[in-house]
Amino acid sequence: MATKAVTPRPAPARAAPARRGGFLRTSNGKKAVMAVTGAVLVLFLVAHMLGNLKVFAGAEGFNSYAAWLRTVGEPAVPGRTLLTLAEIGLLAAVGLHMWAAVSLARRAARARPVKYAARRRSRADGYVVRTMRYGGVIIALFVVWHLLDLTFGTVNPGGAAATPYERVVQGFAPARWWVTSFYLVAMAMVGLHLRHGLWSAFQTLGLARGRRRRALNVLAAAFSAVLVLGFVSVPLAVMIGVVK
Amino acid sequence: MNLTLKVWRQNGPADGGRMVTYKVEDVSPDMSFLEMLDVLNERLTLEGDDPVAFDHDCREGICGMCGMVINGVAHGEQRATTTCQLHMRHFEDGATITIEPWRAAPFPVVKDLVVDRGSFDRIIQAGGFISVPAGSAPDAHSMPVKKEDADDAFDAATCIGCGACVAACPNGSASLFTAAKITHLGLLPQGQPERDSRVVAMVEQMDLEGFGGCTNTGECTAVCPKGIPLDAIAQMNADYLKAAR
Ligand code: HEM
Ligand code: SF4
Ligand code: FES
Predict the structure, then answer these.
(1) Which residues of chain B neighbour A125 with C-beta distances below 8 Å?
(2) Per the domain annotation, does B107 fall within a domain?
(3) Does any domain span residue B108?
(4) Residue B42 burial (CB < 10 Å; 0-12/13-18/19+)?
């Protein structure tokens, strides 16, 4: 690899023994943060998707599930304690995940200041990978809308006074097809994000080695597909009138 | 064959650089890509022009000196092939071929298609070695090594340090190269004493040189002339997390 260096650059000062920047300053450290916070969010998505399916149990079942989320742990802890803790955890995970993503994206941009004239052609399965950064932003915007719609009721026809079940049924009413469309697009982005993200997390944490690589890759694809189908089943069921 | 080349010309590190179009005629399909450039350079020299500078040495795919981005793909479309081993029969007569240097901030252009890969050398200096008294080669059976480990270490050791992985990576990451060295040394008994400090120092040097982070796109392994697998990067990540704990 000896290069015929005509103008050798001075070698940077020999790295000090300690990790000077600390774990979180290294690209590998940031990747690990991304993988672990991503995994927290995935666990949340699984629980959320399964919870959503309660809609098929009818208004009673769905509303009491929503109430249970607020009372779980009582009387050992005051109402909403566990829910609030989960919310703080999720917020922190999203924050750290986005911080790592932005920081790595900026590092990548600095590493290639001059672009290729010929379109750099993907030789691997490049499509999903390219959606990661802007897809993540779409997902984040969706989450904001989603909270205003179904959690706070601000942009929901039922308003804040409606029960959770009413909010779902009115929110995805056929007349609000554009809301449903946005929801479907966002879920497709979540699917793509996890398709690469899950596999990438296995790789980042050093798990995807040897014979396990293929299995984990298939697992990531299957898992993402099942998750997205679970999520989209609810608005579709409302739209075609199965849930009303 | 007659070809149109669009080649990156840059007089030196300070020059802005530009794509220049050349016609090359009577190229034999049996020529290698570098021989085709030799034809162009002979003509340019006769015409009193500056020949196109490019790196090369062995021209048999083992030294890692050659390398250019051909039509947007590092080392060209042919898989598991260095630029010197790429033959013109893979191109069509009359084709237009775009030729650019590796593009990455830690690989500054020296001239035309030649980049300074000193950053790779400094990653090696940071920890890509073993500190043992080196006498004559040890007896083959004196230190047993598991077959799988020996195979993986050997596969990783085939990295020729060409830099195509960096050139192809959308993040300009040097992870595949660094991981190849870490896997090669880390799986063998001689590499154990420095296994932890090596991975920490080499990963840190990679960052210091300004390479991007890995997002597991797999573009590197797809263009790697030696087919270094992504497994190497997983190995590096596992070793790093263990050492940094
Ligand atoms: C529902 C929310 C989200 C989940 C479940 C999630 C999950 C994940 C996971 C598991 C990874 C893999 C980590 C790795 O590379 O090792 C990942 C990567 C990533 N995420 Fe997210 N993420 C979410 C939201 C976001 C948001 C809001 C953004 C954007 C600002 C984002 C941007 C990224 C980027 C850029 C990557 C790196 C992609 C790559 O490896 O190429 N994610 N995500
Ligand atoms: S890993 Fe492959 S592409 Fe990268 S430097 Fe080594 S041989 Fe070249
Ligand atoms: S010139 Fe040695 S590998 Fe191509």
Answers:
(1) 218
(2) no
(3) no
(4) exposed
